[in-house]
Amino acid sequence: MRLPAPPYHFVTRVTELDAEPGVLRPARITTEYDVPEDAWYAVDGGVPPAVTVESGQCDLLLVSYLGIDFRNKGERVYRLLDSSLVFRGGLPTTGQTLRYEISIDRFVHQGDTTIFFFSYDCYADGELILELRDACAGFFSKKELETPLGVVLTDQDRARRAALPKGSFKPLAATTKNQLDAADLELLAQGRPGDVFGPEHAQDPGINPALRLPDARLRMVDEVTVDRKGGPCELGSISAVKHLEPDAWYFTCHFPDDPVLAGSLIAEGAIQLLQVYLMHQGMHLTLPDARFQTVTDRRIDVQVRGQVTPKDAEIRYEVEVTELTLLPRPTVVADVLIHLGDKPVVRMQNLGLQIVEKPGTPYRPETGGVPAFLGRRNRDGEAAMINELHLAHSAKGLLDMAMGPEFEIYRTSRAPYIPNGDFQFVDRVMSLTGTRGDLSPGSEMVTEYDSPDDAWYYRENSTPYMPNCVYMESSLQAAIFLGYYLGATLREPQEEYSIRNLDGRATLVKDVDLRGKTVRHRSKLLMTSVVSGAVLQNFSYELSADGEVFYTGESLFGYFSASALANQVGLDSGTYRPTWLEEEKPAPERVKRIELGPDAPAFRDASGGRLHLPGGRFDLVDRVDLVADGGRHGAGYVHGQRSIRPDEWYFDCHFHRDPVMPGSLGVEAVLQALRLFVLDQGLAGGMTRPRFAMATDVEMSWKYRGQILRDDRELFFDVHVKEVREEAGRLLLIADADLWKPGLRIYELTDVAIEVRPDAD
Questions:
Q1: Which of 370, 553, 655, 755 has its CA 20 to 30 A from that of 699?
Q2: CB 351 within 8 A of CB 326
Q3: Residue 383: half-sphere exposure toward Cβ, Cα within 13 Å
Q4: Which sign, positive or negative, has the C-alpha torsion 190, 191, 192, 197?
Q5: Rounded to the nearest 5 degrees, what angle is found at the Cα of 297, between the Cα atoms of 391 and 291?
Q6: Distance in angstroms (rounded) separating the CA atoms of residues 287 and 186
Q7: Is 616 left (phi over 0), alpha (psi -120 to 50) or beta?
Q8: Pathway of this protein (predicted)?
Q9: Do 718 and 579 meet the contact criterion of CB atoms below 8 Å apart?
């Protein structure tokens, strides 16, 4: 029975021993390891997980002291089988002393084979940082080790994998670099992600010296392949290979006379792959001076069912990402299988890694809202004021992390958030002209949103162009953030406000293909009015890409108390205003009922490049009643209906702890009804390769006086076509519309419009 030899020997002294030599019974040992200031394995003074775990290696010394060699008689060797780890604190740093309180809890004998169960607690300078539980190791003969079963995946394992929820994540920086070789990994070890993944991943010199791979001696992967949308959760999968050398240090030191690759080194390879993936996703861009840290308070389960020895040429990693988030810090969690040939021999479940700022490092806006440089630059090299990490917190996290210490008052109360997840359309704040607490007109904020070329709203739209709801939401979210950031609610911190859009008008100046581009918002505060139970703010805004303005508008928002929201009366002072269909009662033969459910897919058929309605998350209308010559203007009428389920996707996105249907999706339902009118009436029949588009140079205005809630059961709307205009290169439809929740008319839209134009692609 041997301890590992240098350079993998990580115990300095034994300080306590409670064990009886010659008796294989429960026992305890306490050891310490003084981490050298110049430790060979350190990364910018940080101790990697492999060393943190391996430094608890004196279960070997304890079982040896108890006399296991007298039972094994040199015919059996130690192998770890199972363990569970929970990190309770940050990884250690050089110069610290690690203390391990190790206990062997019981022994089991099966013929000549001995199995023992053990655990330990690890303290760094007295602070608990790691617990190892349910660890199991045994002593096996050469014959037993020559026929390993490998990790056996059960039906329960397969069912667990199949049940994992699908997710989505937008990388903070784009890259096409998905295959990395040894030279690329060496660049990452030098702290040069921009030279590997592209200039969008680069940071200023001196920023984040710890966010790099270990040097070649500790590097446990040689070739890496990334699939950003792979795995059962569609959050990413990583494949990698480590080429093994039979006389390498990792065999000769572990163990003397019994060379086998340490399980902690195999796990270190998996950690390094998660480090690569965090950088691949651009997560390092969120902080100026941070470290990779294991995720705390999360159980990692490890199974070992085979040994890696000098006769093995390589090991292969298969990593499936199960969680990828910016909250509370950039984090990745994955399941890992390590293969010898085709046989999986090691499994790790729930392995997590995050990026965390070093103590004392600026990580959020300061008092007043203007932070020091936090490490993020945009695609053009401009310094961002606050970045994706902070905007993620403003959507579903700690508001003070997003906006500064003044917002700590909201840690124990409900407060407004911007939309989150698939409905968040602002990424960074680039600049602010204004002072926190000053709500007078004139303050301006410049923000940005990166529109990925594979975004869900391109994929699920009827054409691969940005839909109206994203134009609306991106501009409105940026404007909301300006007012909130200035402190619109801070004067009454005891009030639990909700934010609602009330009125607005907007014009698409130019239809731009925004796939893969950065949308830049410029928002200006025009007015603030404080009334009983509410704060009203009006903003103007313009959106641009590549320096060209393509969308302009103005909108009024209100922050409302719970009592103010409870007394909503809609647009008609609490009375029910009937729909045109109810009021006019057209003859039945004039009314055409069209069902848009899954049994009536004709209008969503895109085969042959035909004009069609969108689907997926844009499936916002269940059925319509169409009167070709009806409506207020006699030019066409569509009455639409949509059942509302409490689990609709948008409720969780809009807003956190205050779920309502986005008004922009109500507008989107109306636009779909207009598109359906075009399809049913064959209005674009003479156009070559037609596609639907947003209408340019038509100012749409809206008025909202209520919202759709989870328990509202349905919405319905009227669309009154008032103009069908054929112009050079486009067919234009303009309409007015109203939308109801049960009992109340709550939206009024004027000059809502669509185009049909030839597809130039």
A1: 655
A2: no
A3: 11
A4: positive
A5: 55
A6: 22
A7: left
A8: Lipid metabolism; fatty acid biosynthesis
A9: yes
pLDDT in tens, 401-454: 999 999 999 999 999 999 999 999 999 999 999 999 999 999 999 999 999 999
Q: Are 298 and 351 in contact (CB under 8 A)?
A: no
- Of residues 237, 325, 333, 316, the one with CA closest to residue 269: 316
Q: Omega of the bond prior to 209 within 30 degrees of 0, cis?
A: no
Region 1-147: CATH code:
3.10.129.10
* pLDDT score at 520: 98
Are 237 and 14 in contact by the 8 Å Cβ rule? The answer is no
Q: What is the CATH number of domain 388-566?
A: 3.10.129.10
Active site residue 243: no
- If one counts every other C-beta atom within 10 angstroms of the C-beta of residue 761, the result is 8
- Confidence at residue 686, expressed as pLDDT on a 0 to 100 scale: 83
Nearest 5°: phi and psi at 614?
Answer: -75, 170
Question: With contact defined as beta carbons under 8 Å apart, do 721 and 670 qualify?
Answer: no
Q: Is 122 exposed, middle or buried (0-12, 13-18, 19+ CB in 10 A)?
A: buried
Closest CA to 474 of 506, 502, 499, 443: 506
Other CB atoms within 10 Å distance of the CB of residue 360: 7
Provide the β-strand partners of residue 552: 507, 542
Would the pLDDT of 599 be above 70?
no
The top-level CATH class assigned to 151-360 is: alpha beta
Q: Is-contact 537 488, C-beta < 8 A?
A: yes
Spacing of C-alpha 204 from chain mean position:
25
The catalytically annotated residue of 390, 521, 654, 720 is: 654
39's CB contacts (< 8 A; 6+ apart) are 47, 51, 94
The model's pLDDT over 277-289, given as tens digits with 9 standing for 90+, comes to 999 999 999 999 9
State the Cα–Cα distance between residues 67 and 62, nearest whole angstrom: 9
Q: Could you tell me if 661 and 651 are in contact, meaning their C-beta atoms sit under 8 angstroms apart?
A: yes
CA 147 and chain centroid, separation: 42
* d(C-alpha 323, C-alpha 739), whole Å: 38
Q: What is the per-residue pLDDT across 352-375, written as a single tens digit (0 to 9) for each?
A: 999 999 999 999 999 999 999 999
Which tokens hold the place of 39? 């430790």
Q: Is the peptide bond before 255 cis (omega within 30 degrees of 0)?
A: yes
Dump the DSSP string for 58-93. Answer: THHHHHHHTTHHHHHTTS-EEEEEEEEEEE-SPPPB
- Angle at Cα 318 formed by Cα 304 and Cα 348, nearest 5°? 35
DSSP secondary structure of 521-572: EEEEEEEEEEETTEEEEEEEEEEEETTEEEEEEEEEEEEE-HHHHHT--TTT
Q: Which pLDDT score, from 0 to 100, does residue 598 have?
A: 67
Q: Give the model's pLDDT for residue 109.
A: 95
First to last CA, the chain: 70
- CA–CA separation, 651 and 657 (whole Å): 10
Q: Is residue 324 helix, strand or coil? A: strand
User: CATH topology of 1-147 equal to that of 580-758?
Assistant: yes
The CATH number of the domain covering residues in 580-758? 3.10.129.10
- The rounded distance, in Å, linking the Cα atoms of 700 and 509 is 12
How distant, in Å, are the alpha carbons of 480, 488, 576, 620, 707 from that of 749?
21, 28, 18, 17, 15
Please give the single-letter amino acid code of residue 754. Answer: I
Confidence grade of residue 698 (pLDDT, cut at 50, 70, 90): very high
Buried b (16+ CB within 10 A) or exposed e, 59-82: bbbbbbbbbbeeebeeebbbbbbe
SS3 content of the chain, % helix, strand, coil (to 5): 20, 35, 45
Would you list the domain boundaries of the chain? Answer: 1-147, 151-360, 388-566, 580-758
| DSSP three-state, residue 714 | strand
* 215 burial via Cβ count (<10 Å: 0-12, 13-18, 19+): middle
Find the DSSP H helices in 346-500: 388-396, 399-403, 456-459, 468-486
Q: What is the pLDDT of residue 761?
A: 64
